[in-house]
Amino acid sequence: MSEEEQEGLAPAPGFSQAERDAVYRAIYERRDVRDEFLSEEPSRETILRILDAAHHAPSVGFMQPWNFILVRDPALRAQVREAFARAVEAEAQAIEPERRTLYSSLKLEGILKAPLNICVTCDRARHGTTGLGRSQQPHMDLLSAACAVQNLWLAARVEGVGVGWVSILREADLRAILGIPENIAIVAYLCVGYIAQAYRRPELEAKRWARRLPLGELVFENRWGKREDEGRS
Ligand SMILES: Cc1cc2nc3c(=O)[nH]c(=O)nc-3n(C[C@H](O)[C@H](O)[C@H](O)COP(=O)(O)O)c2cc1C
Known about the structure:
alpha+beta; 4 strands; about 35% helix; globular
């Protein structure tokens, strides 16, 4: 065995075309799901596979700051739904008046319809309050937990499980309902369940709330604001 192999390095073979296609398909066909949940709860094995995918996300300093609270209890979910109702009413007031009717028509959660909710948290002091990669950018632990959410979302998609992220919730409400200590940050509240149908493109696009921005407008070369085609005659 070579020295490199002893250090854990191994060949990194490429993916077949079918494997590449499958990964991109999962990425493009992942949707935020609000209303298409079926009532059957995904099996424990399926949930564990999805959570293990989340647990294999990158994290700053390999901190793995996440926890996953599986919320099945309908009474607790009803409390979260009530908290959502309060928060969405408050948010509606902050929306420009001309968009308020459209906002109010949008479906923005599936807390009770989904058979399972998952709260993803971030233990900001899991391996000490500072650490590798966090001395200059302390919020990297939160971004790591967001990476876990994305892994979860994609793995769920390939399992036929839809996920909907609900952020219209006051943190204090979630903390109280789920008994989350003050030193633990709340990263995501997710509605999770099998789906048989999904929107082809973002529901917010289908319902004319927003559209996907052209990628070309978002890519700069070397410095902020510089586009590839600028400066060419
Ligand atoms: C951080 C975050 C918070 C979100 N919060 C909500 C939410 O409160 N309610 C909701 O319906 N969708 C929420 N979404 C879903 C977005 O609306 C959705 O990702 C976006 O419209 C694009 O659609 P797609 O995920 O189907 O591609 C959230 C997504 C993210 C990443």
